[in-house]
Amino acid sequence: MANELENVTETVKSMGVKAAYGAPITLDGVEVVPVALVSFGFGGGSDEKDNGGGGGGGVSVPIGAYISGPNGPTFRPNIVSLLWVLVPLTFASGHALSRIIRALKK
């Protein structure tokens, strides 16, 4: 089981950049390279009797695209996806900051 998990982990590591940046495509004569936020997680284990299990999962959020133009490539964000990522991050950061400030006041 551990060997299988190591094989999957190595495969995912090697495809990191390929997963984050898609293959260039041409739309109306303009070259576009899609960009995504990619995250994977894996885990596994076994007990004393060699019973074991494992699992994994991942998420890919399209955050924008590089679009070729007369002044070179420019990044165009996907606003909906960026909000989907940034709203929870902002909430968690604010919550953590308030706890830090409260702890420092004591």
How can the largest sheet be summarized?
4 strands, antiparallel
Low-confidence stretches: none
Total count of helical runs of at least 4 residues: 3
Mean pLDDT, nearest integer?
84
In total, the number of strands is 4
Overall number of structural domains: 1
End-to-end C-alpha gap: 49 Å
Based on CA inertia axes, which overall geometry fits? flat
Q: H/E order of the elements?
A: HHEEEEH
Strand order of the largest sheet: 1-2-3-4
Give the C-alpha Rg.
20 Å
Q: Could you characterize the architecture of this molecule?
A:
With 106 residues, this protein is α+β, with helices and mostly antiparallel strands. The protein has one domain (2-77). 42% of the residues lie in helices and 38% in strands. It has three helices and four strands; from the N terminus they run H-H-E-E-E-E-H. The chain has helices at residues 2-14, 16-20, 79-105; strands at 25-27, 30-46, 52-67, 74-77. Strands 1-2-3-4 form a four-stranded antiparallel sheet. A hairpin with a 5-residue loop joins strand 2 and strand 3 (52-67). It is flat. The termini are far apart. The model has no long low-confidence stretch (mean pLDDT 84).
Please tag this protein with its features.
42% helix, alpha+beta, 106 residues, membrane, Sporulation protein YtfJ, transmembrane, flat, 3 helices, 4-stranded antiparallel sheet
Topology:
Layout: H1 2-14, H2 16-20, E1 25-27, E2 30-46, E3 52-67, E4 74-77, H3 79-105
Antiparallel strand pairs: 1-2, 2-3, 3-4
